[in-house]
Write a structure and sequence with these properties.
Elements lengths: L2 E7 L4 E7 L3 E5 L6 H13 L3 E6 L5 H4 L2 H8 L3 E3 L4 H13 L12 E2 L5 E4 L2 E7 L8 E4 L7
Parallel strand pairs: 3-4, 4-5, 5-6
Antiparallel strand pairs: 1-2, 2-3, 7-8, 8-9
Length: 149
């Protein structure tokens, strides 16, 4: 069964989510922008003995990807996102700079997610929904078994 831990990070007050079971975690939209925010997320994972195994981006606006470089260094994770969001992931450092905020370049994607794909964690399943509108390549994650998006 999934549990969800919310975090609010960076000057844009972006929502980062840790979707997890008893052992493993999916980092969703890691927006941590500084060492203090990185430590907060790292502390939660360590305190709950969670191993981050996937990094999923719902979209690639700079505020949602600021922690991708850190997650890559710390946990060896690379982002999974919709293909249409890739130019925004690659351009995130420039976008953030326009707002006077630093964003390290993200590691290259692990893979691309599309409508109907499944994101699994020990038998628990999230289905990818393609929900463009707010951003190019915007996706949502739907858990039918537990009734949440």
């Amino acid at each position: 069964m999934f549990r969800i831990a919310p975090f609010t990070f960076n000057p844009f007050q972006e929502n980062t989510w840790v979707v997890h079971n008893d052992r493993q975690a999916i980092l969703v939209d890691p927006g941590c922008a500084d060492a203090e925010e990185e430590r907060e997320l790292e502390h939660f994972l360590a305190q709950n003995a969670l191993e981050p195994v996937r990094l999923v981006l719902t979209h690639a606006h700079a505020d949602h990807v600021m922690g991708c470089a850190w997650a890559g260094r710390r946990y060896g994770l690379r982002p999974e996102l919709h293909r249409d969001a890739l130019p925004y992931l690659e351009g995130a450092p420039r976008s953030a700079a326009m707002f006077g905020v630093h964003c390290e370049p993200s590691p290259p994607p692990q893979g691309f997610l599309a409508e109907g794909d499944l994101v699994e964690l020990d038998g628990d399943v999230l289905r990818v929904l393609f929900v463009p509108g707010h951003a190019e390549g915007h996706i949502a994650l739907y858990c039918e078994a537990q009734g949440f998006v």
